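Here is one chain, start to finish.
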Amino acid sequence: MLKTTLRLFLPVFLLLAAPLVSAAPRIQHWTTDNGLRVYFVEARELPMLDLRLVFNAGSARDGELAGVARLTSGLLNNGAGEWDADTIANRFESVGAQYGGGALRDMAWVNLRTLTSDADWLETALTTYITVVGAPNFPQRDLDRALRNTRVALQGRMQNPGEIAQTRFLETLYAGHPYASDPLGTEQSLDTIRREDLQAFHARHYVARNGVLALVGDLDRAGAERIAARIAAVLAEGEPAPALPAPPARGEATTLRIEFPSEQSHVLIGQPAIARGDADYFPLYVGNHVLGGSGLTSRLFDEVRGKRGLAYSVYSYFLPMTAPGPFMMGVQTQGAQAEEAIGVMRDLLRDYIDKGPTEAELAASKRNITGGFPLRTASNSDIVEQLGMIGFYDLPLDWLDRFSERVEAVTVDDVREAFRRHVQPDRLVTVVVGG
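Its structure:
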């Protein structure tokens, strides 16, 4: 009866009662004998442990088999070792553990949240997780179902103008580059993917020297090292994935118009801009908060919606990635107003690059960013995600410690000069879907 009750309530407990750690946790770092890089934060407030394995195994590694990275990630827990999907799920659920994973363009990740208060339950969760990561068998029946579901998702996307715009924008922006590969794949690539392709992708990319392990929770350093060694032991040493090429150089501005039977037009404007670890990250991040990243108080919102009533939503952001990720401005507006909205956004961007923010705008953005930063490190799950990001992109260990300090150090000149280096208004890609 007790165990049944705990099974019912532990998932809720694990979700809601994530222990708080300090806004600047002390990060410990080491590398296992076979090359797995480990990042650990000790948090003893509650008997919980969060694990996050991150591999350089996103869709940028798909090659000719678009979609294989996402399928590999999604099917890890559908069969591993001698266990089928139901057995794996039951093993996690029986001890209140939570498993998750996913894949984007840069990375794939595998998460585990479990209790540490019961040694047997912790062992069950860890053994299951380690088997899933190290010995998946990708059952053919589950692969067939995943392929069918992915085809349905692709067909559904064609009915959504916003998703069409996003897909075509990145395809145009990164034509010929691995980032142009759609994580879902294509109808053609899905027809060619076989079980052996997932096995080969896993064997090549889910290896120690291509991965990062983040741990946060109720462990001391010795306990974290033991768990890291067990996880590393099921991974082949392997090799890191090769460096990604630079995105294609943009020439003149490009505009792509796609007809869609909708009154609203979805517009995306941008270009490749910045890689993770770039020295201009903080000036661009803070500067974009003024331009279009702060919602109701941004310049884009004020000009496009507030003064002209052209849209309900307008925004901009930088997405730093391993290779330079995109700078993007987006708006959804009435089809008849799309050209006016595009013109306003382009003019505002040119003016912003020329003049930068005002001192008052910059100060307000800094307060907003630093005031909200503690929420990014409020729980173990937040911290483990940050550790995975720090490790994957090889950021300094003081990234969290000095985040607010680096934000505060940004000047108006820093913003203006960084935007001039990374954004060329005459070389933007514009995609319009609708009308």
